[in-house]
Amino acid sequence: MRHLAYVSVLAGCLLAAIWLEPVLRVGVFRRWRRLLLTVLPVAGVFVLWDLAAIAAGHWHFDESQMTGVVFPGRLPLDEVLFFLVVPVCAVLGFEAVGKVLRRPAGDE
After folding, report:
1. Which residues partner with 70 through β-bridges?
2. pTM of the entire structure?
């Protein structure tokens, strides 16, 4: 089970934030294009950053805690998921705070 440690933490983060969508009706997933335009560019930059750090020998991963799925450049699937899950959780949290405080983000 240790090989699922990273993915388990990501699943926990997502579970801790995803309830905001139906309970507070924040509409993050309903506006999926907006979410993709928010998350994908950032994820892309960090994937490139990680690839550069791995290639330079500055960054490595504990393979015993990873799924074992590795992309070219020795980038683990778990790390790519991190760059997708954490921003989605952050957007859910941001939208939830705006909804509770009744403060628009400025683009409504």
Report:
1. 76
2. 0.89
Q: Would you state the structure tokens that stand for residue 61, as one six-digit string?
A: 């991963």
Q: How far apart are alpha carbons 81 and 84 in whole angstroms?
A: 5
Paired with 3 in beta bridges are: none
CA distance 47 to 54: 10
DSSP, collapsed to helix, strand or coil, labels residue 41 as helix
Give the containing element (helix H, strand E) for 31: none
What is d(CA 82, CA 9) in angstroms, rounded to the nearest whole number?
9
pLDDT digit of tens for each residue in the chain (108 aa)? 788 999 999 999 999 999 999 999 999 999 999 999 999 999 999 999 999 999 999 998 998 999 999 999 999 999 999 999 999 999 999 999 999 998 877 666
- Residue listed under structure tokens 């790519």: 80
Amino acid at 42: V
